[in-house]
C-alpha cells in the first residue's frame, strides 16, 4: 500500500510538472484512477512534504486546482540567472482597478468606470498583459459588453487560494472611503 501511495504521489507530481498550469483535482483523479477526495488528500500531503523539505519548488492550491511553482525564497537566485526579472509594477490605478474587478467580478468595463469615475482602458489592458485578469465572457445585454474577472495568476500573486480569502471590507471603512471620495469630487468655489 505504501509503495502504491508513493507511485500515485509520483504520478501527481509528474502531471503537475508536465502541465505547468493549474490542473483541476477531478482531472488528476481521473488520470490516476482515484476518487477526488483521495486525490485531494494526496495532493495536500505532497504540499506539506514540499513545504517541510524547504524545496525550491512548491505545490499551491488555487481553488479546486493545484499547480507546481517556484518557491519565492529562490527569487534572488532566479534573478541572477535571468539577469532581467519579469516583475510587474502595480500602480495605485492598477491596484484600484484590480480591486474592483476582484470584488465585483464578473464586471464590465462600464461598471468599473462608473465606480472609478474615469476611463480604465489602460488599466484593464495592463492587467490583462500581466495575466491578473481575463475575459470571462460577454453579458447578455445590448452591445454584449465583455465581462472581466481575476485569474489563477492573481490568486498566486496575492498568496490566496480562492477569492473567499480576500479581506472583507468593514462597513465603517466603506463609509470612510465614500466620504473621502465625495470630498475629492467637491469643486472649490
Characteristics:
189 residues; 3-stranded antiparallel β-sheet; Arc Repressor Mutant, subunit A; alpha+beta; 6 strands
Run of helices and strands: HEHHEEHHEHHEEHH
Strand content: 5-15%
Instruction: Work out the helicity level.
Output: 40-55%
Order of strands, main sheet, comes to 1-3-2
CATH superfamily of the largest domain, by name, is Winged helix-like DNA-binding domain superfamily/Winged helix DNA-binding domain
Domains (count): 2
Helix/strand/pairing class, anyone?
A: alpha+beta
CATH class descriptor of the largest domain:
Mainly Alpha
Query: What is the CA-CA span between the terminal residues?
Result: 80 Å
What would the principal axes of the Cα set say about the shape? elongated
- Classify the fold: give the CATH topology of the largest domain: Arc Repressor Mutant, subunit A
Low-confidence blocks of residues: none
Q: Averaging pLDDT over every residue, what do you get?
A: 85
Helical segment count = 9
CATH architecture name of the largest domain: Orthogonal Bundle
Write down the Rg.
21 Å
What is the number of strand segments? 6
Largest sheet: 3 strands, antiparallel
Question: Your description of this structure?
Answer:
With 189 residues, this protein is α+β, with helices and mostly antiparallel strands. It has 2 domains: 73 residues, Winged helix-like DNA-binding domain superfamily/Winged helix DNA-binding domain (Arc Repressor Mutant, subunit A, Orthogonal Bundle), CATH 1.10.10.10; 94 residues, Winged helix-like DNA-binding domain superfamily/Winged helix DNA-binding domain (Arc Repressor Mutant, subunit A, Orthogonal Bundle). 54% of the residues lie in helices and 14% in strands. The protein has a 3-stranded antiparallel β-sheet with strand order 1-3-2. A 3-stranded antiparallel β-sheet has the order 4-6-5. It is elongated. The chain starts with a helix and ends with a helix. The model has no long low-confidence stretch (mean pLDDT 85).
Amino acid at each position: 500500500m505504501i509503495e502504491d501511495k508513493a507511485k500515485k504521489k509520483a504520478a501527481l507530481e509528474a502531471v503537475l510538472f508536465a502541465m505547468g498550469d493549474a490542473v483541476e483535482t477531478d482531472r488528476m483523479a481521473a488520470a490516476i484512477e482515484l476518487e477526488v477526495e483521495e486525490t485531494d488528500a494526496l495532493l495536500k500531503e505532497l504540499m506539506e512534504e514540499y513545504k517541510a523539505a524547504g524545496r525550491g519548488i512548491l505545490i499551491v492550491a488555487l481553488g479546486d486546482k493545484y499547480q507546481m511553482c517556484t518557491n519565492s525564497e529562490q527569487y534572488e537566485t532566479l534573478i541572477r540567472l535571468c539577469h532581467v526579472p519579469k516583475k510587474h509594477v502595480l500602480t495605485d490605478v492598477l491596484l484600484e482597478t484590480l480591486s474592483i474587478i476582484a470584488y465585483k467580478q464578473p464586471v464590465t468595463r462600464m461598471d468599473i468606470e462608473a465606480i472609478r469615475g474615469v476611463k480604465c482602458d489602460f488599466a484593464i489592458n495592463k492587467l490583462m498583459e500581466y495575466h491578473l485578469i481575463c475575459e470571462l465572457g460577454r453579458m447578455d445585454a445590448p452591445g454584449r459588453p465583455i465581462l472581466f474577472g481575476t485569474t489563477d495568476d492573481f490568486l498566486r500573486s496575492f498568496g490566496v487560494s480562492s477569492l473567499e480569502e480576500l479581506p472583507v471590507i468593514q462597513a465603517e471603512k466603506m463609509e470612510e472611503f465614500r466620504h473621502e471620495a465625495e470630498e475629492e469630487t467637491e469643486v472649490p468655489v
